[in-house]
Input
Amino acid sequence: MEKLFQSGSKSASIVDREYENFKCIKDKKRDLTNITQIIGVFEIITFSVYSNFVVSMSESTLIDNIQTIAVAVAGWMAIKVLGNYSQWTGSVYGRATFYSFLIASGVNILLAIILGVGTSFLIF
Output
């Protein structure tokens, strides 16, 4: 086993890079916990109000409203993905982090849209 991860070998550099990614993520979690919570609250408020506004103020069909909301969600997700690309470059942990981020963000935004659309029907 020691021969696999000898200093200077290709396997050792991969293991070192993955370890650095783990350490970087751990440090980011410790330092940026409040910022991620603020962004989550911002997403919920923004997409709730936006979807409420689109549904209640638009005279378009439901399909047009869904397309309008989907464009905004796709743009926001693209900004988030491109902004965090550097932490997802690891081969194993990077993919796991990316997919958990994608699922969590999708659920957060979907619930915000459901909340916004639901309140637009209750208000108007």
Observations:
- Residues 33-123 form one domain.
- The two ends are 67 Å apart (CA to CA).
- The chain has three helices and no strands.
